[in-house]
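Structure tokens please, single chain.
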Amino acid sequence: MILTQILHPNCVKVPVENSEKEAVITELIDLLDSNGLFSDRDVALDAVLTRERTRSTGIGAGIAIPHGKCNAVKELIMAIGIAREPIEFDSVDGKPVKILIFLVSPANQTGPHIQALAAISKLMLNEEFKQKLEQAVSADEVYKLLNEIDN
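Here you go.
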């Protein structure tokens, strides 16, 4: 899966403004909503927060992939946030996160959602790429990094 096909350049935030888990999730929901990507922002927010309460999406190594499925979107959408200061996220390794990769997909479409999660997980194994993301100073830089690795 080519992630820049689901990530709009204006759905990247560097740095995120919030430093608390639920607040930064809401911030990324609002970023997607400001780009007209939800039919109902509150339904999307509820889906992601409900998923997060089930089990943390902090996958370790400073990365979180908050995600949810709902009927507020017609297709898989994505946002990326980079935190300057690490955010406590109840990660599996107990470490805070700096890279947030956010997905929301339609409730009835499992395939693309799982493919995107797999592509993100594989990409985050690239330590050099991960460090470049953490050090990015602008949303443009993050998008260009992702575009380069996709191609």
